[in-house]
């Protein structure tokens, strides 16, 4: 009888030990799986709303949630957002500190030579914004001698710098600032300068949310598709293939449209042919 009890005790200890080893083995596997994922650092300067903004201390907005959807349930990548100044977005891509960036980024030839463009995720044409009581500005042909505020190295800043190079006898007056777009729009409403060129979605959102009813929007012609793109550092070809494929999937399953309606209030998506 004593032998049976002894054997049973040893068997029980063996089972416990086996269970502990199995648990340790399982834990090590999970840790190994997590460690094998590559961390993708996505840079942004945190504006403009509704593309990117902070809510309760957390980044959100259309582009942020699209990126989260792109990497959701990936067994290869983990995504992390890092907020920086506008110039720091590009400096970080150049230095391989960031893998990717989202910041309401449009296409330019200069950027295409330095970075990789993923498939477009939104359509967002530029517009001209002026005060309703200002009848002197009706199109880009009227901005000579008028003033505006721009952030250095942005698409609109480069566009207006090119305008001045073409119109040296009557250039537009460029006041460079580090203010965010909401602050710039409030100053335009207060009459501190004459006009602003920016994207339609951002403009309409700020006018509505800030109650800037004394401003009006003038549509501008465009010689290229006014799309918004995620940007990737050079050499991130494998990551670009993954991102492009996921954007196509999110377009087809309705996720992009759902997020567009949630953050923009309507569907502002690229043509399906342009994301293939």
TrEMBL record:
> Record's superkingdom?
Bacteria
Against SUPFAM superfamilies, the record matches this protein to: Periplasmic binding protein-like II (SSF53850)
Keywords linked to the UniProt accession:
Signal
Q: Which CDD domains match?
A: PBP2_TcyK
Q: Where is the Solute-binding protein family 3/N-terminal domain?
A: 39-267
User: What start and end residues bound the annotated signal peptide?
Assistant: 1-22
Pfam families listed in its UniProt record: SBP_bac_3 (PF00497)
User: Signal as a keyword?
Assistant: yes
UniProt xrefs under InterPro entries = Solute-binding_3/MltF_N (IPR001638)
Instruction: Show the SMART domains listed in the entry.
Output: PBPb (SM00062)
Q: Can you say what this protein is called?
A: L-cystine-binding protein tcyA
